[in-house]
Amino acid sequence: PWGEYGSRYVEHFMPLFRELGCKTLLDYGSGIESLREALARDHPDIDVRCYDQGVIGREVAPEPADFVVCTDMLEHVEPDLIDNVLQHINKLTVRGAYLRIGMAQAKRLLCDGRNAHILLKPRQWWWGKLKQHGFNVVMEGGGKKTFIVHIKATQQLDREAERRKYEFAYDHSKYQMGVKRGADARCDLEALPIRGSYLDVSC
Fold this sequence. Notes:
alpha/beta
């Protein structure tokens, strides 16, 4: 069986999941669904979906989700299919994603004698692939054996840029209103009739 370690990574991606305001999560390559079980127990507000080509009942093409989690799976993909898989993950990602990719030999062998991690590539190779398929990596981690990336979808970055533009416009309008109020106040003071010998208008 596979997918038994998915539950270990919940706290790794949960800060980004919450930051992006996500409500739905897709476990891409879910295996025995330990991630779904952990989330149901500790984060019952999250709508979790599972997808796995190798599991009967989970092989149906999924709908896009706010957040996609894919852990310890991409290194098992046949080299000539990795572009299709990455493109698929990107299309399914609405707001963000968490990818964990193995870069070391597995302990198991396939029936044909190959190591179970049939796609062992260095970090820079994966970087190139992610860039090629339009992933926006906002944080990376891992060590010699693992490559971990936190991703924000392009449409999410567009939303954040639009929000920043609105916030800037709002702040600028407040500044302009302040300047106008100051100018109006000066005009009011200048219009005051001076009846005494001394008028103190200092602030």
